[in-house]
Design brief:
66 residues; 2 helices; 3 strands; 36% helix; Alpha-Beta Plaits
């Protein structure tokens, strides 16, 4: 089951950040869809992974999310 989640990531400021965040999420769900907006610092994720797993992956990648 795919879930749509939204996160606020204060440290996301550029395309490199978006690539790292996307890679972190795809590492736990290869089929995840990630949309990021560096201006609002919002990331929308469509994934079958749990919210806790996504938060842990982002934290490990150095992009803690709220």
């Amino acid at each position: 089951m795919e879930l749509i989640m939204q996160f606020s990531i204060a440290r996301m400021s550029c395309g490199g950040c978006v690539k790292a965040i996307t890679a972190a999420i795809v590492s736990i769900d290869a089929n995840a869809k990630v949309e990021a907006d560096t201006v609002s610092k919002q990331v929308t994720v469509e994934t079958s992974a749990s919210r806790d797993d996504v938060l842990k992956a982002l934290d490990t990648a150095g992009y803690p999310a709220a």
